[in-house]
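Ligand-bound model needed. F0G.
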Amino acid sequence: MTVTTPTPVQTAQLKCIACGAVRAEAGQNFRCPECGDLFEIVYPAWKDARPDANALKQLWRQRRLSSDPLDQSGVWRFRELLPALRDEGSVITLREGNTPLYTLPNCSRRLGLPNLFAKHQGMNPTASFKDTGMTVASSFAREAGLKWVACASTGNTSASMAAYASRGGLRSLVLIPEGKISWSKLSQSLDYGAVTCQLKTDFDGCVRVLSEIVQRMPVYLLNSVNPYRLEGQKTAAIELLEQFDWKVPDHIIVPGGNLGNSSALGKACLELKDLGLVSSLPKISIIQAEGANPLFRSMHDHGGKTLTPVHAETMATAIRIGNPASWKKAVRILQATGGTVEQVSEAEIALAKAEIGAEGIGCEPASAVTLAGLKKLAASGFVKSSESVVLILTGHVLKDPDFTLAFHRDHLFANEAGPDVSARLDPLRREPIIVDATADAVIQTLRRFDATL
Ligand code: F0G
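Prediction:
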């Protein structure tokens, strides 16, 4: 007699976060046909056949020794908690995930937080956290036989989508706001072969145009409203907790833009707790730029019940988003985990980014909001010195070299930042120095920095 184990293809379902409608498949726009809200992926089979927590922990560890591409992926290594493809051969992987957990000794000391860590999602194949979600969603697109995938982006989703699409033999369409994303992200999507359209609008405008396109054309939407992406992004939290040997840190701090990532990381923590892999939840807090703070306003003004879109402005272009799609999911995570939301100024972002750089790590501006926000949360007593904190660094320092150079050349706040800000930022500036091409001139320069030489 053969025993057929139910495959997760049958067990994963799409469930509307508002009206609870359940679907086997989503429509083109990944919105509930009943009420228009977003879907999330749920696993009802876990109720009857709960995966064994210890067996899973062991299996995931063993896979680290495997040479199977699926096991080498830091996403598919955790495939028991992901929706399964009918054919694993459809998986498109660039060996994403597997990102390092760093200490931040200088920031730790300054803040009086001995247990401060950074999980660097910028160490993914296209240098941002988007790869963890893209491997899952693009694989489902390939399995469904779709030819074209598309996204609106502030630069990282597009870079990631373009890479995974090319890798999987799919064509990709990128919509980005003209002049409002970093050149290095734009160059990635060109190099990976996407059809890249720069629209004369902002990110929220690109989303509006793309919503119409997906209704009219056979393209598969790869924005984070696509719940398969969030399932992949979930694995960063699983990997993080594994790195902590399943002892849960007190706080996880995440940048907030379209609010998919905070939702995904929170979903992972809730599922791991439900399944008994961990015994408590970290508080997940979300940090926004002051100029792109719709969630901050929503929580403060309306307790997260409604969200009014804002016109977004920030030099942290990755999170220059005024109308975040996943805000309800994010509110749910804040409430379920006891986290909070904070906003930070442009100068605070610049300072925090330079401080993370000075740790020999670096990140893009949007990621630095985490450290800037942590300073406020520690000052207010929300984060205590005895507690452990993990900052999620979402993008690599090379994602936005223009910002970094402008900071070090003192062009970032040309005339607008007051003396207070300059006094805080100046000690971290390292201007490139033009020096005569002689050893004497270089040695003289060196002695300006170290009189003991
Ligand atoms: N950090 C970086 C580096 C990002 O690129 C993004 C979002 C975020 C944080 C915010 O994450 O949207 O899940 O809240 N970038 C998207 C993009 C919008 O198109 O690349 P979120």
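The radius of gyration is 22 Å.
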